[in-house]
Amino acid sequence: MSRVIGVVSEYKILQNERDYIVVNTKGNYDNHGHFKKLSTCYLIIRLMQKRTIPKKSFMLEAARRITIDQKYKQVLEMKQEKNKQRQRYFNPNKRVRR
Q1: Rounded-to-5 percentages of helix, strand, coil across the chain
Q2: Over the stretch 27-46, which tens digit does the pLDDT of each residue have?
Q3: pTM of the predicted model, to two decimals?
């Protein structure tokens, strides 16, 4: 069972036994995201209200799932695709003994 922690405009924060859930009340059942900390819930709500793109990949995915604005969702999906194509740094000499 979950209990309501707070309501910020159209977003509701619920506390579960293990984590916190941010639900978009204007959306369907699919428009929700799970977070470990309450401060992260308020952060994602603030970012979505300002239509800002999060830097972390899990925040990008959560914002994409929670929002119902199609233009903002397309921008987030484009950012996710761009991050997938990004070249990652790999140090091949990391475990070399001398």
Answers
A1: 40, 20, 40
A2: 898 999 999 999 999 999 99
A3: 0.82
In this structure, what token pair is assigned to residue 20? 């916190």
Per DSSP, the three-state class of 11 is strand
The burial class, CB within 10 Å (0-12 / 13-18 / 19+), for 33 is: buried
User: Please, are residues 49 and 69 in contact by the beta-carbon 8 Å criterion?
Assistant: no
Q: Can you tell me whether residue 48 is helix, strand or coil?
A: helix
| 8 Å CB contact between 65 and 30 | yes
Going by C-alpha positions, the residue among 89, 80, 33 that lies closest to residue 56 is 80
Dig out the tokens for 6 from the structure: 């707070």
**The pair of three-digit structure tokens given for residue 15, joined into one six-digit string:** 């506390």
In terms of Cα–Cα distance, which of 28, 27, 26, 32 is closest to 13?
32
Structure confidence by residue, pLDDT tens digits, 10-28: 999 999 999 999 999 998 9
